[in-house]
Amino acid sequence: MDQRRSSGSSGRSRQPSLISPTVVGSLILGICIIIASSNIAGKITKLNATIENTQFASTMKVPENISVSATAQRTYLTDTEAAQYLNLSDSTEVVSLIKNGEITEYIQNSKGGYSISKEALDDWFYEQVNKNNAPVTDE
């Protein structure tokens, strides 16, 4: 009986594997290297951008005593800003000028506030100046 077992087991031939463990291991290692290198490359790109932004910001010279008027470049002002622009006490005076028809270039928004043309405010102001400086005539 022992002979059959030994002859039976020795009669089998080992079939070659299509993919060897060495090839599989090398393939996995190669994929890991590609993933790691792309991850590192992304971090380097972000680092370069951060360094460039930091260097640019540190070389900028900004005046410390700069002031910019909020109304300098705008064409239309709110009623509150218009009151400040005309040096009036509050926005109700501007609203009454609009309701009296003295200021005609404005837009009323959905909340009831106004956007008033700076040109219309200038025209109204110069009318007031001319009215007050008009010569008095005796008739």
Give the C-alpha Rg: 42 Å
Q: Helical amount among residues, as a percent range?
A: 55-70%
- The amount of beta strand, in percent, is 5-15%
Give the overall shape.
rod-shaped
H and E order: HHEHHEEH
Task: Write the topology of this structure.
Layout: H1 2-10, H2 21-59, E1 76-78, H3 79-85, H4 91-99, E2 106-108, E3 114-117, H5 118-133
Antiparallel strand pairs: 1-3, 2-3
Helix pairs in contact: 3-4
Task: Give your account of this protein's structure.
This protein is mainly alpha-helical. The protein has 5 helices and 3 strands; from the N terminus they run ααβααββα. Helix 3 crosses helix 4. The protein starts with a helix and ends in a 6-residue tail after the last helix. The mean pLDDT is 77.
How would you concisely characterize the structure shown here?
It is built from five helices and three strands. The protein is mainly α.
Provide tags for this entry.
rod-shaped, 5 helices, 58% helix, mainly alpha
